[in-house]
Amino acid sequence: MKLTNLRALVAAIDEGSMRAAARRLGVSQPALTKMVRELERELATTLLLRSTTGVLATAQGMVLYDRAVAADRELAHAVDQIQQLDGRMTGSLTIGAVPLAVMLLVPETLRTFGRAFPDIQLRIIEELYIAQLTRLRKGEVDIALGPLPEHLPSGEFAVETLMPIDMVIVVRKGNPLGRARRLADLAQAPWVYTGANADSGYAKTLFENHGMKPPPAGALVNSTLGLLSIIASGNCVGLLPHQIAVHPFAAQHLQVVAVTEGPLQLTLGALARADAALKPSVRHFMAHLHRAAHHLSDPLR
Q1: What is the β-pairing status of strands 157-172 and 238-241?
Q2: Same domain, yes or no, for 157 and 176?
């Protein structure tokens, strides 16, 4: 199975058009069609449904698409790692980071890492909830930067502990729920969940830590703007890192609810797959993150 043929299939599915896929890969449309046909003959199946409006992957095509994307990504990682082990610090790094890390740690890390390794391209993807570590396990990000999940599998990840986080309860300014003094007072309120689904997320963790049933999900988001907008314009309750909740932008619209149980205490850390941690650029970026966190906790040093 040729890598060029797999890339042709990926481009066709991504673009939804053989013509656009050929343009993306810099080949003629007949040449790209031939590549996909070779795959279909090799596998004795149909990978694409063709019509006058474009192409659509079959179920078989999507299975191969997912594996081809993952294989191409792993090969790119291998090329980067080999070059870096040979002393050529080039390539790219993709970082999945929660908003607090983007606000407090990423700018300083980018400054120092970028100065030391100017030929490595950095891409930052914001995520509100990283506990499932899906992107990290799939290789879509090289480093996940956020609250460390509990019960991490031993040996699967390289972990760098960075700083503590207090997740505080917030509501819209003027919301009567702002007068709540116990977590139980908020148990029936609609909460904004930031996990992959309503069965996960920090709100669930907060309530379960105090032996309580998780509150109802009023909304499920994975966007900082979405989270702030929903809480600021309605009656939903949510959790935010204390530093973001008291930031002037957020404080214009939100108020912190001081319950007797206190905030949800988490630890911000950086995780990389154990195999990816062998990549020099990953090791160096983790070290620069650690320095940024140390600088933040002791700026005079």
Answers
A1: antiparallel
A2: no
